[in-house]
Structure formats: C-alpha cells, structure tokens
Design brief:
Elements (H helix, E strand, L loop, with lengths): L9 E12 L2 E7 L14 E6 L11 E3 L2 E3 L8 E6 L2 E3 L4 E7 L6 H8 L5 E8 L10 E6 L4 H9 L7 E7 L14 E7 L6 H7 L7 E8 H15 L6 E7 L5 H17 L1
Parallel strand pairs: 10-11, 10-13, 11-12, 13-14
Antiparallel strand pairs: 1-2, 1-9, 2-8, 3-6, 3-9, 4-5, 7-8
Length: 269
C-alpha cells in the first residue's frame, strides 16, 4: 500500500497581531490554504517558513513524488518550529504565539515587524496526537517557549481535569491569567539565574499512579526533569512528553540534531 502523500506547505498571510505580554505576541495567519487544517491539534508542532533578508515572501519547498525539494540555499526560507496556539476553522484563522526575545533573531524580529498582509508559510501540524493522552492527573512544566502550547492545552481540557502547571518567566511582567478548569493549579516562577524548575519538581508531592508529565522548554531543565521523573517515579514514553524546545546559546538550526537525540532517548526508555 502506498504511503499517504505529504501535503505541501501552505502560504498564509498575516491577519492581525496582538501582544499577550511584554514578552509574547500572537500573530494570526489566514488564507484559503488553511482549508482542511486539522481542528483537533492544540499545542501541536508547526514548521514556520519566513522570508530571508531581501525577500517579501518566503520561497517554500515543494513536494513531489520523490519527496521534498528545497529552494537553492540563497533562496531557502528561514525555518523555525512553533506550536498551534489556536485554530478557528470557521474563519480559517491560525494563531501562533511568538516570544519577543531581547536579542535579535529572525523569528522574533519578524514577529515584531509583522503587519497585516505579510506572508509566511507553515507545514504540519505534527507531534504526538493527542498531545495530552487521557490521564488521572497532569504535571505540566515549561517556560516562555512552551507557554503557547501549555496555554492551548489548558484551554481545551475537560472541565473535571486535575493538573499542576509550573510556568517559568523572565520577570513579573510575563505572568498572566490562563483559561483553565477549576481543578488546574497554575504556579508562576521568575527565573533569576539557572532555571528553578528541576528543583521545584523534585520538591513537589507526587500525585501517584496515573500521572502524565508534559515538560518542554530549555534543554538543561527538560533533561534534568525528565531524568528525575524517569528514575524516581518510573515514567516512560507512555506517561511523559519531554521535549527541549531550545538550548541556551544555540539557535534552532545548530540545536536540531541534539534535540532529536534527547527525544530518541525518551522513546528508548
């Protein structure tokens, strides 16, 4: 039986932008190519294609019988990984939430300057489906990079869900109200130096059997928490999502292979 044909990337345009904190901004993308986009994928991974310097629109890869064909290196788009923040199938609007880094970077710079009518491409969604399997209790841990996915997952939880959510932000301005069921306990931590999240997780009372852990964010914190949960509470790939989204000092292209090694380690557990 032939493998299903991969869908080519979708070219979309900016509809509007809005800030969710001094550190984060939602870009709403729309366009006819969003027809057929899956409705049940909050928090799923997306590949975002952005124009290179001097381009008005990104030059997207194409998909043919032999797979993906990329443009020549000097025309190849900037590619970054983001999460589905929200999808509105009635209006064909897709929200992606960006971290506005204090240092210059291609994605955050684009998000700062984005205006209605600007164009970007996406591929996906991908990642586990569903992103949160059924569980008696959830432990969710992340930072600004994973907050869009966490927020999307909280907004789509059942009303009787029980969870503890630990969110790390760079300062008090990053703290905001999150929409979630009454049984979800959200706690905020300001990072001053190394991430406090591994030590906080170790100090938590463990909810017991039936807990699913969802951890994403900076490499060092994610690996430390993953190893603790695996060694102390016996969590494996069926009861834990542990994916580093970034590593201090490295941009996404440089970190790509190491991130996949960490993910493979979890799969092998």
């Amino acid at each position: 039986m032939a493998a299903p044909r991969r869908r080519p990337p979708r070219m979309l345009q900016v509809i509007e932008t809005r800030d969710t904190s001094p550190h984060t901004r939602i870009i709403t993308l729309g366009g006819a190519e969003l027809e057929g986009f899956p409705e049940d994928c909050p928090g799923a991974h997306l590949k975002l294609f952005l124009p290179r310097h001097g381009q008005s629109d990104p030059v997207l890869p194409t998909v043919g019988p032999k797979g993906i064909t990329w443009p020549a290196p000097h025309r190849r788009p900037i590619v970054r990984t983001y999460s589905v923040r929200r999808f509105d199938p009635l209006r064909c609007h897709l929200d992606i939430e960006f971290v506005l880094h204090p240092r210059s970077g291609p994605a955050s710079d684009w998000a700062r300057k984005a205006r209605a009518g600007d164009r970007a491409g996406i591929a996906g969604p991908g990642g586990p489906h569903p992103m949160l399997p059924l569980a008696q209790h959830y432990l969710m841990v992340g930072d600004l990079s994973s907050l869009p996915a966490i927020t999307a997952l909280l907004e789509n939880m059942e009303s009787d869900t029980r969870a503890r959510v630990l969110c790390e932000v760079p300062d008090d301005r990053g703290i905001r109200e999150l929409e979630c069921p009454p049984g979800v306990d959200v706690r905020w931590y300001v990072r001053r130096g190394p991430s406090p999240l591994p030590q906080i997780v170790e100090a938590l009372p463990w909810p017991g059997a039936g807990t699913y852990a969802w951890i994403a964010g900076e490499h060092g914190a994610v690996v430390a928490i993953r190893d603790y949960l695996r060694e102390t509470h016996g969590l494996g790939r069926d009861s834990m999502y542990a994916v580093p989204y970034w590593k201090a000092g490295l941009h996404e292209d440089a970190y790509h292979q190491e991130r996949h090694r960490v993910m493979d380690e979890l799969e092998a557990a």
